[in-house]
Design brief:
single chain; 327 residues; alpha/beta; 7-stranded mixed β-sheet; 15 helices; 9 strands
Length: 327
């Protein structure tokens, strides 16, 4: 009669196996199989990573820039306050890199730089899928006029880890209304896109402005008694386009205000930024009326210089044109 097997200590078999495996290193072949089993599903994320590759590149580039600035700040003992004069060397370097990128990628040029006032003003622009055009403009303003343009950006951008130092250096922030008013009263420029992420996500190659009832920027201009400078960039949607515009994505955005649609592109199309004549301060109009005037001014620039719907091939061929044209 076979002897009965006595129960062992709970977990004893597992401990015995693990000790044996450490000694013989034979059972660890199963570890490789397990790792492969776990990692394989991660390949499902590859399409998502590719869809957001432009944003990923921008983020990595921004983090690298912040790291370089941090090292330079420590080596040269730059003051904490980025408004100090020594920080202009940092801004000059950033301006040169960004301007060169604009020239190489899109043959970037600005038409109407003379419309940028010497004093304060609000630069109001159409928000593309990617706002590289505005970054190129800010770099050109600093290079040509030596002026810093403050930029009002979405709160999600300033919360991303690793970007703060670079954003502080070029004065990109989710400013409050009081801070915006102070910036303008000190004689500075402020740039913003009233359409924001809604326009960036859901506008298309027809370049329709999606401002809704936003009049806060106009009220700010009235309170600060400053002009509004309209701006529009030709072929912006041909360089970078957002995808995934569905009723569900629109619903998600409207209810979360956090959604950023995947973007594709990087096509080396011609970018020309047109700056219109400033809309002067007028105490006799309302914020709603001023907002409508600003919208009409940008639409006028769009209708004058942008063929709609946009076409990527045509925009590529426009890189070979020596002079800009009305349509």
């Amino acid at each position: 009669m076979a002897a009965m097997k006595t129960p062992g200590v709970p977990g004893e078999e597992m401990i015995t196996w693990f000790s044996s495996a450490l000694t013989n290193r034979t059972d660890f072949t199963y570890l490789e199989e397990y790792v492969i089993f776990v990692i394989n599903p991660l390949w499902l994320l590859v399409p998502l990573i590719l869809l957001y590759s432009i944003y990923s590149f921008m983020y990595i580039f921004g983090c690298f820039g912040s790291f370089i600035i941090y090292v330079y700040k420590k080596k040269t003992n730059l003051p904490e306050d980025t408004y100090n004069e020594p920080w202009n060397k940092v801004r000059q370097a950033i301006s040169q890199v960004v301007s060169a990128g604009g020239k190489i990628l899109h043959g970037y040029e600005v038409i109407g730089m003379e419309h940028i006032p010497e004093g304060p003003g609000i630069i109001t622009f159409y928000h593309g899928a990617i706002v590289f055009d505005y970054a190129f403009l800010v770099a050109n303003i600093f290079a040509e006029k030596g002026r810093v343009c403050h930029s009002l950006v979405d709160h999600t951008m300033v919360k991303l880890p690793g970007l703060k130092l670079a954003l502080d250096a070029i004065h990109c922030k989710n400013y409050t209304k009081a801070e915006c008013l102070e910036i303008l009263k000190k004689g500075n420029l402020l740039g913003l896109a009233p359409g924001g992420l809604r326009e960036g996500n859901f506008s298309d190659q027809y370049y329709n402005l999606m401002w809704g009832n936003r009049t806060g920027f106009a009220q700010l201009a009235l309170d600060a008694k400053v002009p509004i400078i309209p701006m529009f960039t030709q072929n912006l949607r041909e360089g970078y386009r957002s995808t995934g515009k569905t009723w569900l994505s629109r619903w998600l955005y409207e209810h979360t205000r956090f959604l950023v649609l995947p973007t594709y592109g990087g096509f080396p199309v011609k970018f020309r930024t047109y700056i219109g004549e400033p809309i002067p301060y007028d105490p006799n109009i309302t914020a709603k009326e001023l907002a409508e005037k600003a919208k009409t001014a940008i639409e006028h620039l769009r209708d004058r210089y942008q063929k709609r719907p946009g076409n990527i091939l045509r925009a590529l061929l426009e890189r070979f044109e020596k002079h800009h044209k009305d349509i």
